[in-house]
């Protein structure tokens, strides 16, 4: 399922925001705080509307759990453009050729959805979590806030997840996972752990893709000859250079780590969506063409849709150069900017031909 | 709010800018020329394709700028068809 259009309302920096005609590989540029990361987050939430996604986003943004515990009534305010209303609603609507999927995130102090959970639980097997939940429900309303995530496809509107923020933390329930798409979010600075990356490599190895992963790493560093996982203390990926012994991936640069991560997330999630924030991080400009070539090829081969953000002029230039080698509608560049007349955040799409022209004329296309 | 004038080449840009300054007109900006010097080096000069790309690029910049009116100055070069290019460009 390829997302073509996205509509976001009342989320992060977006009051009402529309973006149209996504392609398979999409690069997004704009000024600092223009909404590039928030756009990836909206795509992430729409694809996987769960409490885990909300908590992942908190972690990615380094949002403090202590703040949430101290002022639970305002725990979810950071998600909303307009925080003033008692009942706050976010809508994220993704259109593909096959369907329209709408996510509605509602924040208020109602606990009706959680009361339904009690009815569904077997009384004899009442868990500690349910006990804790009951205590929270009878607490003062000012000491909690509830976030309900609904998914609508066609005519069905289903509750996907519920979360209660309270003075002890967050209690979560994810109910309906049938509407989830395979989606992976690679943030700009937060690395996944070595064991998690090693596990991803083992999955790819099991499917027979280890040689492909090696070739991809070699495009960044041609002196790397072997790749494998070793379980010494903790499981990790090890790489062997010419005439050297195997060394853990942590001893190699950021580019190697990130490129392996991109490749593994793609080969292990066929037909999914890959979201990459600040794709230029750690990638030397001489490796950028190779990186884009790999990403375009993998995206086509594994039927993946890629959304990446960047600040880098060189990265956009490299994207334009490589995208030209593929069919015209494989890639597109989107500029996030402010409209002069309405002071509203807007998205401006450039197909590859126009992007190449604007690059050659040294025009402004990064939110200036 | 301002008005924008798009010209064909860097030379035209210098000339029109000097003219605008001489006439003391304050509300006209001269945009980037349609052709770069490389276009002339390879003897292609202004083509319909270049014009389409320049107008597409202009459309992309339009929401970010408060522009009231746009003018395009093209050299006729004795080619009648050039005057129809703006209509033909479909922008």
What does this structure look like?
- The complex is a heterodimer of chains A (368) and B (91).
- Chain A folds into 2 domains: 49-179, no CATH class; 184-360, P-loop containing nucleotide triphosphate hydrolases (Rossmann fold).
- Chain A has helices spanning 36-47, 51-60, 65-70, 112-120, 128-137, 194-206, 210-220, 254-267, 285-301, 313-323, 352-360, and strands spanning 3-11, 14-19, 25-30, 88-96, 100-108, 144-153, 156-166, 169-174, 183-186, 224-232, 234-241, 246-248, 273-276, 305-310, 331-338, 345-350.
- Chain A has 368 residues and is an alpha+beta fold.
- The longest helix of chain A has 17 residues, at 285-301.
- In chain A, helix 9 (285-301) crosses helix 10 (313-323).
- A 7-stranded antiparallel beta sheet of chain A has the order 2-1-4-5-6-7-8, with helices on both faces. Chain A has a 6-stranded mixed beta sheet with strand order 9-13-14-3-15-16, with helices on both faces. In chain A, strands 10-11-12 form a 3-stranded antiparallel beta sheet.
- Chain A contains 11 helices and 16 strands.
- Chain B is α/β, with parallel strands linked by helices.
- Chain B has one domain.
- Chain B has a 3-stranded parallel beta sheet, with helices on one face.
- In chain B, helix 1 (10-22) links the parallel strand 1 (2-6) and strand 2.
- Chain B is globular.
- The chains are: A alpha+beta (368), B alpha/beta (91).
- The A-B interface holds A 335, 337-341, 346, 348, 350, 353-354, 357-358, 360-365, 368 and B 32, 36, 53-54, 56-57, 60-61, 63-66.
């Amino acid at each position: 399922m390829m997302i073509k259009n996205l509509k976001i309302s009342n989320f992060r920096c977006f009051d009402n925001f529309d973006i149209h005609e996504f392609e398979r590989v999409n690069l997004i540029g704009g000024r600092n705080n223009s909404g590039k990361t928030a756009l990836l987050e909206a795509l992430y939430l729409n694809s996987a509307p769960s409490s885990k996604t909300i908590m992942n986003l908190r972690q990615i943004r380094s949002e403090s759990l202590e703040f949430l515990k101290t002022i639970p009534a305002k725990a979810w305010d950071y998600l909303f453009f307009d925080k003033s209303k008692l009942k706050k609603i976010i809508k994220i609507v993704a259109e593909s050729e096959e369907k329209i999927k709408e996510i509605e995130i509602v924040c208020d102090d109602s606990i009706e959805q959680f009361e339904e959970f009690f009815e569904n639980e077997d009384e004899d097997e009442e868990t500690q979590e349910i006990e804790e939940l009951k205590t929270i429900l009878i607490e003062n309303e000012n000491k909690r806030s509830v976030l309900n995530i609904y998914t609508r496809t066609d005519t069905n509107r289903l509750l996907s997840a519920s979360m209660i923020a309270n003075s002890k933390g967050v209690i979560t329930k994810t109910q309906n996972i049938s509407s989830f798409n395979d989606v992976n979010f690679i943030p700009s600075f937060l690395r996944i752990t070595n064991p998690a990356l090693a596990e991803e490599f083992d999955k790819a190895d099991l499917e027979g893709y280890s040689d492909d992963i090696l070739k991809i790493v070699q495009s960044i560093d041609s002196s790397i000859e072997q790749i494998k996982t070793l379980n010494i203390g903790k499981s990790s990926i090890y790489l062997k250079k010419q005439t050297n012994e195997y060394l853990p991936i942590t001893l190699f640069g950021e580019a190697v780590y990130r490129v392996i991560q991109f490749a593994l997330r793609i080969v292990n999630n066929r037909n999914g969506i890959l979201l990459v924030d600040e794709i230029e991080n750690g990638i030397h400009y001489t490796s950028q063409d190779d990186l884009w070539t790999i990403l375009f090829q993998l995206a086509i081969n594994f039927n993946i849709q890629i959304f990446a953000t960047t600040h880098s002029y060189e990265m956009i230039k490299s994207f334009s150069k490589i995208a030209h080698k593929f069919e015209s509608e494989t890639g597109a560049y989107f500029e996030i900017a402010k409209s002069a007349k309405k002071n509203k955040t807007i998205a401006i799409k450039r197909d590859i031909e126009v992007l190449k022209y604007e690059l050659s004329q040294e025009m402004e296309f990064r939110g200036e | 709010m301002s008005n924008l004038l798009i010209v064909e080449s860097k030379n035209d840009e210098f000339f029109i800018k000097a003219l605008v300054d001489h006439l003391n007109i304050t509300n006209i900006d001269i945009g980037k020329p349609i052709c770069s010097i490389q276009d002339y080096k390879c003897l292609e000069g202004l083509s319909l394709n270049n014009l389409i790309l320049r107008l597409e690029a202009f459309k992309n910049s339009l929401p970010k700028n408060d522009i009231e009116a746009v003018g395009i100055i093209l050299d006729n070069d004795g080619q009648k068809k050039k005057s129809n290019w703006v209509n033909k460009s479909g922008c």
